[in-house]
Amino acid sequence: MTARKSKQGAEHLGGDRYRVRRYIPDRGDGKPGQRSRNFHAPNQRTADRMAAAEYVKLDADIADAAAKAGTLAGLCERYEAHKLPTWSPSTADAKVRHLKAIRADLGHHRLDQLTAEHVDGWYAVLRKRGLGEQSVKHYATTLGAVLRQGERWDKATMRAHRNATPPKPAKVPVRVPPAPVVALLMSTATGALRVALALAAFVGARRGEIMGLRWSDFDGHQLTIRRSVLDRPGGEVFVKSTKSGRERTLTVDQALLEELAVWRAEQLRVMAAIRTTPPADWFVFADWRKDESGQRPQRPGWLSLAWSRHRLAHGAQGVRLHHLRHWNASTLLDAGVPLPVVSGRLGHADSATTARIYAHALEAADVATRGMLTAALQPEQGDTHG
Q1: Helix/strand/coil for 71
Q2: pLDDT at 40 over 50
């Protein structure tokens, strides 16, 4: 129904619903717009009488919004509305949590009055709440993103964030399990867990990437990692792109292909048992209980739980699933595989990320070069100069 507007300014929206509205020159992003208030009235005449009071309330709302627009809280709200559609569910969960804390602790500050002292004080408050330096850094990163967006909109400056003392998380050394431990944990696993561990160790894939694999991602000895799977509340899953947002293709070992062949045959037996015709393609780790066509992946949480039970059963409490990825990268670097190649296999944004994480392997490789150049200049036995 098209809204009708009386001479007194109340718009009839249908039934007993009415509206008053004002046009405003700036809705907070530099563009004109409008704000409105809806209310109920039994008829148009009563609505017109009520309109004056509703306009007073609407003007108060507009004044409050204008005051808030110049604060960090107002900028946080506009930033969230602007960015939320682009975030994955897991990113959104974290960012919304950060923004809520920023609004609660710093939101009352006007953007032109926010200082580095305010920001440093906020970091101190987060630490008092029990957050570690790495977590405080994540909150600081979100604050910086908000102010940077405000700068683009000519609403704020990065000065306070830039001049504050940034959190410095302690560098946690990468834990690389010994090869015998990796071999034991892989050889004693069975079924889907065995295949998942083989992918973690031979490919260095992340947990979500393992759960996101389809059979069509394999082409002979080539594997293309295209997607990742996230856990969602209520047991749901969300399929998204990889962490870097890019696909990557790498060569896989024959041993892994043999493990996959055994697992695929087992899945075909499952489909035969439930009288399901094998589809053209399906997830390597499909959730058959919820989708007999194999088009729904298992939750990543399943892999974490299965791994936790397996490692405890074999006395490897300190070995995390992600440590198999570390073992993969360190083993390749120790063997002399070039850093850019390892970086590409892991799906890092650039080689600098790989170098920072696996500095220990690069340092060991550097030590191994001792004497190589001298030996290269030594004449071979039997070489004479005439």
Answers
A1: strand
A2: yes
194-213 pLDDT, tens digit each? 999 999 999 999 999 999 99
Report residue 239: phi and psi, to 5°.
-95, 125
Question: Phi, psi (5° rounding) for residue 248?
Answer: -145, 140
pTM of the entire structure? Answer: 0.68
Residues constituting the chain = 386
Beta bridge partners of 11: 5, 19
Higher pLDDT, residue 349 or 179: 179
Residue by residue, DSSP assigns 316-378 as: -TT--THHHHHHHHHHHHHTT--HHHHHHHHT-SSHHHHHHHTHHHHHHHHHHTTTHHHHHHS
pLDDT higher than 80, residue 379: no
User: Which residues are CB-neighbours of 82 under 8 A, at least 6 positions away?
Assistant: 149
How far, rounded to the nearest angstrom, does the alpha carbon of residue 255 sit from its chain's CA centroid?
31
May I ask the CATH class of domain 72-163? mainly alpha
Domain 72-163 shares a fold with domain 179-367: no
Domain parsing of the chain, residue ranges = 4-69, 72-163, 179-367
Q: Would you identify the CATH topology of the domain 179-367? A: hpI Integrase; Chain A (1.10.443)
